[in-house]
Amino acid sequence: MKMKKQLHLMARLKAKIYDKHGLTLVEILAAITIFAILAPIIWGVLVTGQKIYVKQSTEVQFRDDADYVVTLVMNEFYSEPFNYVEKCGKNCIKIIQSERTTLAPVEKDSLKYYEVEKEEITAEETRIEIIEENGKTSYKMNDQILETESDFTGSTLEFFCPNENKKDEKCSSGIIKLTNNMSQPGKTDQSLTLESEFGF
């Protein structure tokens, strides 16, 4: 008896599946109710995922721009010898090379050796500054703007010299500090501030 009921139920379900008359009102209402419950959840997950993606990619861009700027500034300090650093205004420093060191071969009493000679040269300078141009704040090195996605409004560039001669403010060794306050106006409200320091 039970078996007959199950077969009869299966036959009715099979007939319903292959029925070409469409859905009943109850089935349509059930589908709409389920969709109304699930749609806001799915939409919320998608919107949250999109916001997290934008936030993460913007932060990665900020960090890339800061790394790019700091690396180029460090390269200016470590790639070529220099004599001192001096200020040239707010958020502006100059790296000055005013003398060159050379080795001169000396022969004396059958001895051969080298003497270190310092030679005065026309001062060569590398200028690093933060400027605002065309509504965007950027770093500028030797009259060349460092192209980045980020705007550096509010950033600072300074150096600290423990043995600084206050008379002429020339510093032969100290610490360079870059405080990069980055934003992307027009794209996102997000901003990020990163500080970098290195010695010279």
Features of the shown structure:
200 residues; 3-stranded antiparallel beta sheet; single chain; 8 strands; alpha+beta
Residues in β-strands, percent: 35-45%
Output the strand order for the largest sheet.
1-2-3-4-5
Computed over alpha carbons, the radius of gyration is: 35 Å
Main pleated sheet:
5 strands, antiparallel
Low-confidence segments, given as residue ranges, are none
Oligomer: single chain
Distance between the termini: 95 Å
- The total of helices stands at 2
Mean pLDDT, all residues: 82
Q: Order of SSEs, N→C? A: HHEEEEEEEE
Secondary structure class reads alpha+beta
Number of strands: 8
The coarse silhouette is elongated
- Could you estimate the helical fraction of the residues in percent? 25-40%
